[in-house]
Write a structure and sequence with these properties.
two-stranded antiparallel ribbon; Rhomboid-like fold; two-stranded parallel ribbon; about 260 residues; disordered N terminus; about 5% strand; mainly alpha
Length: about 260
């Protein structure tokens, strides 16, 4: 009998994800669709309520609407934005959930999303000097999922723009590189409506969580670990945000409908 290679095991895991139940992936997709519909059901939900509670900005967090760090991760108001995010999330997310389990995958998505929201707040408040710049979308969380997948299955073939085949790890490096380039362009005055800070924040957490699980396995008390980690980061952001708000009272209000990169894989 021959032995299984790492490539065989990778293929087996991905094939298993096609038939294994992935309840967290399914729940997240359904929740994103539901929130998208709420943006257009004016007879049920006041649009101002959605803007106040499903858009994240540094000003919103400083004003006490900390929940927007989470709710914005499930929020889309453009059909194409929703479709492209859920398309990539569903494909990569099922393979990860089937591999690491539903609880760990839930932690990955939620904390990558929060890290993405914090990344947007930090960039808009400190680098762009627009603390009222609002954002929405799941791409920060999905960036974490993509990076995690790339570390777990670095040689798996993915298609850039749906056309160009390359190893997942190479695609991830290109994705992060483009976000870094886009962020530098934004600091120089570029007006592209893309949340590069959210992408990079989510990607950073995805990489961190992968190595955390690889080294130690799942934390014994994940809820407390995640709670204190998020609380400490949020407190730091609020302290800096108060200083930024005091010196930037006349910043322009704008919605970044991005968190979607032009080059997805």
């Amino acid at each position: 009998m021959g032995s299984l290679t790492s490539k065989d095991l990778m293929r087996y895991t991905i094939l298993r994800s096609m038939v294994s139940p992935t309840p967290v992936v399914n729940w997240i997709v359904k929740t994103n669709i539901l929130v998208f519909l709420l943006w257009y059901l004016f007879f049920l939900v006041d649009p101002s309520f959605m803007a106040q509670n499903f858009l994240v900005s540094w000003s919103a967090v400083v004003d006490g609407r900390i929940w927007t760090l989470v709710t914005s991760v499930f929020s889309h108001n453009l059909l194409f934005h929703l479709f492209i995010n859920m398309y990539f999330f569903y494909g990569f997310g099922r393979a990860i959930e089937a591999s690491v389990g539903s609880r760990r995958f839930f932690n990955l998505y939620m904390l990558s999303g929060i890290a993405g929201s914090l990344g947007h707040c930090f960039v808009s408040g400190n680098l762009l000097h627009q603390p009222q710049l609002a954002a929405l979308g799941a791409s920060g969380a999905i960036s974490g999922v993509l990076v995690f997948f790339s570390f777990m299955f670095p040689r798996e073939k993915v298609y850039l723009l749906g056309l160009i085949p390359m190893p997942a790890f190479v695609g991830m490096l290109l994705f992060v590189g483009l976000d870094l380039f886009g962020l530098m362009a934004q600091t120089q005055g570029s007006q592209l409506p893309i949340g590069y800070g959210a992408h990079l924040g989510g990607a950073l957490y995805g990489a961190t969580y992968y190595f955390h699980l690889k080294k130690r396995g799942p934390p014994k008390r994940p809820s407390w670990f995640l709670f204190f980690t998020c609380t400490n980061v949020i407190i730091m952001m609020l302290n800096v945000g108060l200083q930024c708000r005091a010196s930037n009272n006349n910043c322009m209000r704008r919605i970044v409908t991005g968190h979607v990169a032009d080059l997805n894989f």
